[in-house]
Amino acid sequence: MVLNDDQRRVIKALYLEMYFLLFSYAQNMLSDRSLAEEAVQDTFRIACAKADKLLCSPNPKGWLLNTLKYVIKNKVRSWAYHGNSLELDENIIPGNCDVLDIDFMYSDLTNSEDYKLIKKIALDKYSMLEAAKEIGISVEACKKRVQRAKKKLKKALKKMV
């Protein structure tokens, strides 16, 4: 696992930016500080081993979060296999995303204004009128921006699959 200078620089920047958030997520899921640290370190070990996949991803932060989720699931499975009990909050993993997950996973797929607008409408349940008033545009302009943002997001998600 030999990284070139660019790969090393990008992964180091992601590490510095994401470590605390990933650690907080892992600690919340595992309820154990040392296991959480180990899970995050394993995540970045995998990121180094699969640097090409990470860096080619349209959303490296989401890639790291998904990798962390798999690392956590594997830790729980391993503990169960060895007769230890380690419980996992099934409301969070694997499928249901909380807002932190969504911010990690999708914020860099569209520009931030479009992302915030989609988030207001989809997650915060704003009406088009409420969203338009909040950002100071007409309802028709809001609808058009949402339509364009959804199209961009859909295209980006297809590339991820």
From TrEMBL:
Domain RNA polymerase sigma-70 region: from-to ranges: 17-78
Keyword Metal-binding: no
Keyword DNA-binding: yes
Keywords of the record: DNA-binding, Sigma factor, Transcription, Transcription regulation
One GO biological process term: DNA-templated transcription initiation
GO molecular function: DNA binding; sigma factor activity
Similarity comment: Belongs to the sigma-70 factor family. ECF subfamily.
Protein name: RNA polymerase sigma-70 region 2 domain-containing protein
